[in-house]
Amino acid sequence: MWCPGPGVEERVLDVAVAGVGMTRFGRLRDLSFRDLAADAFEAALLMAGLERGDVDALVLAAESDTFTLQLNPSAVVADDLGLVGAAASRVEGGGASGGLAVQAGAARILAGLSRRVAVVGVDVTASSLPGDAVRDLYGFSFDAWAEGMTGVTATALYALSFQAWDGGATEDDLARVVLKNRGNACLNPRAHLPRRHEPGEVEASPLVASPYRRLHCSPLSDGAAVVILARPADLPATRRGAPRLLGIGAATDAAHLGARARPGRFAAKSVATRRALEMAGIGPEAVVAAEVYDAYAGAELQGVAALGLSENPVADLRAGRFDGGGALPVNLSGGLLGQGAPPGATGVAQVATCALLVEGRYHPGLQPAHPVDVALADTHGGVCTTAAVTIVGAAT
Amino acid sequence: MRLDLHLAYDLAEGWLAPHLAGLREGRAVASLCGACNAATFPPRRACVCGGRASGWVTLPGTAAVASRTEGRDGAFALLRFDGAATATVARAEGLPPGATRARLLPATGERPALLVGEEAP
């Protein structure tokens, strides 16, 4: 059990998501990563009701300098955003970068180091390099000295992990996940891949790494997302009721897929979730919407299982429980499959989505009919080598 | 704006040098745990038992195939080398579909890659 020290639980509950901003995700050839970060930041600042001088720290999530070709990007982004003088740092954890950055921003507030933190997630994986080059670079996201030297791709590693999963998913189930998420994306004006695939289209797409076909894979995307965190007392009166971070948890697993006792299980995600739920003082049944890291269709099902949100994810998928109108909608944004996947921005966008859902102001057609008191944002890097889970809830 | 950048890395092999040298010659050199004596392949400094690697051992180089994936990205397998306590991912272009056994092949090219082929070609 996680044992809070004196007052710790109260402090965690006291961090608000004051403002959120997000650019469109996609192949945005005319916008630099600096443009994207600035656009998302301005929107978040406006929502928070703050001036830029109120922000005293920047935490930047950007997966790799090989995409932006900008070393020390946090200082450059701080300059662009008019935050010179603020503390600025960069957080990196592969696909979990954004989730970890939100947690690092919350930690700064909890530690009393900052009062208002802008967490900026941004990446440009679609337009800065050829797709094959990005695929090769992603192959070094695992153990570069072992798997990386074989030339293995992320898709192949995810495929081997999915094959080892004992959840009983079929090719039809993989297609269901794709249709669900890209269907949700049709109602998300910022999504990279809003699609209503024809029957059989997913199964007919080219084989990348069995069982994964092209349409089972999330795209390479450009985009940015920002959340501004602060204690309610440090916010304008209009935003003191903003959604709260209820719990944060992170964990790691063995870097080598083969070194894990059960390569199909996302064990780090389970540990991170337990930590986040214990901090929030709730069980998984309290979660009524989730943004789950669906880099590949099967990874969503593996993720839902590891998060403890379903005892039988495949049966619940088939029953429609994870649909937009279901009891536990998963990836209303479209997820990585539909909304897109700029790695640094992904986890920040997930938390932003959860905050908007809790406030009841998400996109028309996607906001659930039932109140979203608690939502969960789930990211990971590698094949769930690094996991970060964040729980967002209503202020009361 | 367009920028062509070519980077030629010369990475120190460090502690992994005996293992990587083995891969170039087709020998499966695993780390040996000083606490439980388990062989780990590919090597890890920290054993699953919590002990630390204290030496090296050369395994037979044969392996049991657990699963395999193939497609546009190539062919790769998850397999466990005989004598190893952990499994590994290897490039498996030379492994026939349905094969349940494999053997380590000498790495070709500049990269010290884990390659496997038929156990008894």
Provide a descriptive summary of the structure in words.
- The complex is a heterodimer of chains A (396) and B (121).
- The model of chain A is unreliable at 1-11 (pLDDT under 50).
- In chain A, α5 packs across α14 (343-359) and α8 crosses α11.
- Chain A is 35% helix and 17% strand.
- In chain A, the strands form three sheets. A five-stranded mixed β-sheet of chain A has the order 1-7-4-2-3, sandwiched between helices. Chain A has a four-stranded mixed β-sheet with strand order 8-11-10-9.
- Chain A contains 14 helices and eleven strands.
- Chain A is globular and about 50 Å long.
- Chain A is an alpha/beta fold.
- In chain A, β10 and β11 (386-393) form a beta hairpin.
- With 121 residues, chain B is mostly beta strands.
- Chain B has one domain.
- Helices cover 7% and strands 40% of the residues of chain B.
- In chain B, the strands form two sheets. Chain B has a five-stranded mixed β-barrel.
- In chain B, β1 and β2 (39-40) form a beta hairpin.
- The mean pLDDT of chain B is 95.
- Chains A and B meet through α7, β5 and β6 of A and β4, β5 and β6 of B.
Comma- or semicolon-separated keywords:
heterodimer, A: five-stranded mixed beta sheet, four-stranded mixed beta sheet, 14 helices, 35% helix, disordered N terminus, B: 121 residues, mainly beta, five-stranded mixed beta barrel, 1 helix
Give the class of chain B from helix and strand content and strand pairing. mainly beta
Low-confidence segments of chain A: 1-11
**Strand ordering within the main sheet of chain B:** 4-5-6-8-7
Number of helices of chain A: 14
